[in-house]
Amino acid sequence: MSKCQYYEFQAVDRPLTQRATSERRALSTCAEITPNRFVNVYHYGDFRGDPRSLMEKYFDAFVYVANWGTHQCMLRLPRPQLDPHVASRYCPDDEVAALHTTADHVILDLPPMRKR
Predict the structure, then answer these.
(1) What is the domain partition of the chain in residue ranges?
(2) Exposed/middle/buried for residue 72 (C-beta within 10 Å: 0-12, 13-18, 19+)
(3) Which pTM value belongs to this model?
(4) Order of strands, edge to edge, in the sheet holding 105-114?
(5) Contacts of 26 (CB under 8 A, 6+ apart)
(6) Which run of H or of E encompasses 42?
């Protein structure tokens, strides 16, 4: 069985700068990169970037799918739209969902899950 991993990041409400595009290009020479999107498919090797730090810095949504059944999703929302204290009630442990906060955002992380 060959290996296949799909990574997609989306910037929803604003395009990213040219500098940000250059920084993302350093992570992968074969990725599809636009001002709002970063998509990479790996058949050999792995992604060199850290999805959470990319979410903190640039993106609003992330999805990862591997052909062996592993899936992950992250959403970044402005703090005024999602109070971290309220949202944390719905994240009983890191295996179900996790919250990561920055000064301006809350990142809801639905961690890697394997198909059963």
Answers:
(1) 5-114
(2) middle
(3) 0.89
(4) 32-34, 37-42, 5-10, 61-66, 70-78, 105-114, 98-101
(5) none
(6) strand 37-42
Q: What is the pLDDT of residues 1-15, one digit of tens each?
A: 568 999 999 999 889
Tell me the CB-side half-sphere exposure of residue 2, using CA atoms within 13 A: 5
Mean pLDDT score, 81-108:
89
Q: How many CB atoms lie within 10 A of CB 111?
A: 15
3-state secondary structure of 109: strand
Place of tokens 């442990």: 93
Is 114 a residue whose pLDDT tops 80?
Answer: no
Cβ 108 vs Cβ 75: under 8 Å: yes
115 pLDDT above the threshold of 80: no
State the pLDDT at residue 22: 84
